[in-house]
Amino acid sequence: MAKEKTTYVCSECGGTSPRWLGKCPACGAWNTLIEQAAAPAGGGAQNNRFGQSYAALAGSSELAVLAEIEAADVARTPTGIEELDRVLGGGIVAGGVTLIGGDPGIGKSTLLLQATDALQNAGQMALYVTGEESGAQVALRARRLGLERSQVQLMAEIQLEKILATLDTHRPAIAVIDSIQTIYSDQLTSAPGSVAQVRECAAHLTRFAKASGTAVVLVGHVTKEGALAGPRVLEHMVDTVLYFEGDTHSSFRLVRAIKNRFGAVNEIGVFAMTERGLRGVANPSAIFLSQHEQPVPGSVVLVTLEGTRPMLVEIQALVDDGGPSPRRLSVGLERDRLAMLLAVLHRHAGVACMDQDVFVNAVGGVRISEPAADLSVMLAIASSLRGKPLPKGFVAFGEVGLAGEVRPAPRGQERLREAAKLGFSIAVVPKANAPKKAMRELEGLTIHPVERVEQAIELLRSIDGDNRAP
Length: 470
Ligand code: TYD
Ligand code: MG
Description:
binds magnesium ion, 8-stranded mixed sheet, Ribosomal Protein S5, domain 2, Rossmann fold, 9-stranded mixed sheet, binds thymidine-5'-diphosphate, globular, 9 helices, alpha/beta
């Protein structure tokens, strides 16, 4: 088959060029030209962005009144792996496309092999396309997982057209593509893993999923630089986006849904990597706490709410003499938010870190994006700066505003109950989250409501009995 000629389209202005150029000839932007497969010959209708007549297409698409369309509930097939089903919103959806991203080595292939095997055992045909590893390597993993008798269909292939042909013949219930970055279409000249290839291949696989009803799972590596060719460019195309989080050095892994057309987002699944694969952790509330014998300065436990479950995560801060341009670094927390919190601390509570390096870290590689972490980050910073630990059994949560106010966190009661259940004894929380005056104690947990950051810092000073600044 003769190769279709490809064109290069500018991602900024939509201008085209027959060759790759560093600079778009239309708008002058740099590095924006991306290869695209040419439209089939005679398919002028797809190209007539400007001016051509659409008369030939009149009436070819039908209109329907929204209220008259029957809203069918999507049919889900549980994978049998409870924590995965939780993030998926109940299971895989026929014709749905899921993207699973994460660092190399975090457990994507392991989880998907376990899931496809479980589905196969439940009578759903599962096809696993491996572009990264050989069949023997996958078989080795299966052995390790105790799945040596797995009936999952395996295909070691990286060419898109061959994959599509096989999928079309077999029509499996679920097809896993591990990984999308290794697949290439021979319609394009760019290398596998380039933006053009990743996008083109994903688009074809998505179209196949919608047309055939096969649930397609695309595996994508997130590169350290968050590179363009990573799964990010696919997020808008697919129905569900899951990301693996966690420190490869610790055994816990989180799978977070950041987009889900078929379920709730921000639900998380929690797993532990064991010698025999990933095992669901049904009760994850206390896994992100490090076990200090005695309280240490700069450590505060945050009660965060992930999806439907409260979790306790240790937030650590280290404040140390900095050079002429002090550093602000955060792992697992937003850096811009850290800069904001430092400004609020200074302006409203008189705690100055101007000439100090400030590092903050959420223990266990978990990523915290909710603003309810603010108060604990602040208290951890103040504690490190003072060199004084908070008392044993201390927890905090609450959002902090630029005016120095402490705002309530969603579902505060649930967070407090979880902390009490785990034996924590003292909590600093937004006033609106605290129970009524008569019951400021909850099963051994004493609750200190605060309305402003200066109140929280004041409380810190009274707790450790040292009233000196900062
Ligand atoms: P893998 O699923 O290959 O990661 P990814 O596909 O995201 O790159 O997981 C690789 C890591 O998991 C590897 O370091 C070995 C470890 N592992 C276990 O600890 N136990 C197991 O049962 C398996 C299969 C892997
Ligand atoms: Mg892998």
